[in-house]
Amino acid sequence: MKKLLSYTFLFSLFLFLVACSSRKALVSTGEDKQRTYPTTAVQKFAYGELYRQAGDFARALIEYEEAASIDSLSPVIYARIGEAYLALNRMTKARNAFLKSVELNPDQPGLFDMIALTLVMDGKMAEAEKIWLNLIENYPWYEDAWYNLSDFYFEQNDTAKGLDILQRLLKKNPDNTDVLGRIVDVLHQLGRYEASIPFLEKLISQIPDYSRFYQSLYKTYIELGREEEARQTLLRWREHVNPSPQVELLYADQLIRNGEWDKALDILYQGHAVWPGQWAFPHLLAIVYIEKEEPDSVRKYYNMALNEGSALPVAYRNYALWLADQDDIRTALDVILEGRDLHPDDQD
Questions:
Q1: Residue 38 carries which DSSP code?
Q2: Does residue 3 carry a pLDDT above 70?
Q3: 3-state helix vs strand vs coil in the chain, percent to 5
Q4: Which pLDDT band holds residue 96 (cuts at 50, 70, 90)?
Q5: pLDDT exceeds cutoff 80 at 5
Q6: Which of 49, 95, 203, 279 could form a disulfide with 308 if both were Cys (CB 3.0 to 4.6 A apart)?
Q7: Average pLDDT over residues 200-205
Q8: pLDDT tens for residues 160-172?
Q9: In the structure, what pLDDT confidence band is assigned to residue 8 with cuts at 50, 70 and 90?
Q10: Residue 98: what pLDDT?
Q11: Does 29 score more than 60 pLDDT?
């Protein structure tokens, strides 16, 4: 689950220090009255901030707690105490500090979110769920609560509720690309590829030059066995996004599958010229020449692929299999041994 430690406090550190340095701040409790911030508490808090920024939460905690012992009415100090305890994996103490902070200032949805997370870590699921449901009702703009609640349901294997939370959030902001992306990821994990297509199309319409969305849509069509839509997705990808080895290789692979050898060769030659260190271009060139029955070119490009130094085991296997089909068993064994030396963990 997403463990966010950045949250909004009523007072930022800057405002806190400004208020404290002036020694006085106005607090509204039905009537205006003055509250004095002790200088020593300000100094202790500042030292705690330095230790926190350095990653020394134990020493930061000492300073924060000393500041709280001097000034027990600052929600910011208790929030920092809770954060330090959380970093030290002391959930109960973290939760108690957060509760003290929201007692002093209830309008802190970020801290209620943190309280819910500590409850989950302590196995108190029902209490955490109740807090998140309250947050999305009373602070619908606070998106972290929606995300954490949906993650909570997914971890409880309640995918219906998890998706419902994300879709409710999407209704509030239909153009939220983060929510759209999360819904797509969940649908793919569930194998619901068809249902993900409208969300992917919405993402592409909003950010038409982002490769990941086209890649995901291409994968979706491949999973559904819809080759023509997959091909059209690649064409859109190539049209709207700057060229990359990934899309060129996928497009060449599609052309090879369709028997369009000459078009595939053009794409692969161009790709290898632009990205000469990519072993997959000569590897696919070798595959094309297998289909064209040009054994000299097959050897040339397989050797070129293997000489790149970054070739994956599949290149060694494919070359060895082809050599065996050519009755060149000795060379095939040499290729297999070379592949095993370079990839000792590969079991195939």
A1: P
A2: no
A3: 70, 5, 25
A4: very high
A5: no
A6: 279
A7: 96
A8: 999 999 999 999 9
A9: very low
A10: 93
A11: no
For residues 223-228, average pLDDT: 94
Which tokens is 109 given? 């949805």
Q: Which of residues 59 and 33 earns the better pLDDT score?
A: 59
Please, what is the Cα angle at 241 between 237 and 244, to 5 degrees?
90
Segments making up each domain of the chain, as ranges: 1-168
Residue whose pair of structure tokens reads 């002391």 in the numeric block: 90
Using the CB atoms, write b or e for 89-120: b if 16+ within 10 Å: ebbebbbbbbbbbbebbeebbbbbbbbbbbbb
Closest C-alpha among 76, 55, 69, 56 to residue 9: 76
Residue 80 contacts residue 93 (beta carbons within 8 Å): no
At CA 205, angle to CA 201 and CA 209, rounded to 5? 105
Contacts 24+ apart (CB under 8 A), 316-320: 316/342, 316/343, 317/348, 318/283, 318/286, 318/287, 319/286
C-beta of residue 77 within 8 angstroms of C-beta of residue 67: yes
Query: What are the structure tokens assigned to 22, written together?
Result: 């002036």
| Residue 268, C-beta contacts closer than 8 angstroms, at least 6 positions apart | 252, 281, 282, 284, 285, 288
Q: What is the Cα–Cα distance from 197 to 203, expressed in whole angstroms? A: 10
Residue 346 has pLDDT above 80, yes or no: no
How far is the C-alpha of 48 from the C-alpha of 66, rounded, in Å?
A: 10
Alpha carbons within 13 angstroms on the beta-carbon side of residue 187 total: 23
Assess whether pLDDT exceeds 70 at residue 187.
yes
| Conformation bin of residue 8: beta by default, left when phi > 0, alpha when psi is -120 to 50 | beta
Query: What distances in angstroms separate CA 320 from CA 134, 149, 327, 342, one per listed residue?
Result: 62, 52, 10, 15
Round to whole Å and give the CA distance between 312 and 306. Answer: 9
